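Need tokens for this chain, all 201 residues.
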Amino acid sequence: MKKIFIGILTAATIFFQTPVTFATPEFEINEYVYKWVQSTPRGNYYFNYQVCGYKIRSDDTLDLNILEVPALITYDNIQIDDVTQKRRWHGQSVKGYNNLIGRADYLEFNLRDETVKIVQRDDLDNTFSTLDSETFDESIKLSELSEKDISCKMYREILKWARENNDWIIRRSRGKLSSHDSKLSPKNYPIFKLKWNVNKR
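Here are the structure tokens for all 201 residues:
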């Protein structure tokens, strides 16, 4: 998914003619690839709706319990300096970090367990190349997120969009519904059975 995410991001910057520019002035984020969710004083939050989709099993069927979503967070100059300084404090390389523009978070939602996990986080430069990468194993219960948490709104908007566009996600997927899932009524898909309120403001 990572290579697809970066590829679409780069292609969109080159080929689409109606980009939308947000708070980071050095580059543009295209609305045909990314959906803006929110902005804070330190950054802008998007997710790649062209790439997000259900995990594909080894038999090419869709796992409707697992939704994979690439997210993009762009930084302002203060946040860029903060990330760079923290790396210095921890003795990490800052090579290329003069071109840092933000990060990519590769999210995995387990709709059955109602959890979310950041599978991988990449620091990105202004060519959207990876400067450094780290992986994570910890899953977080959606119900345990604070309503004041920036990520809470991010996750809620992603799941709300996925619910509203579930048919589209399935149709454009490289996988197919299993024989069991193809017999289900859409209202019985895991995305529609979440107890966590995705419509809450």
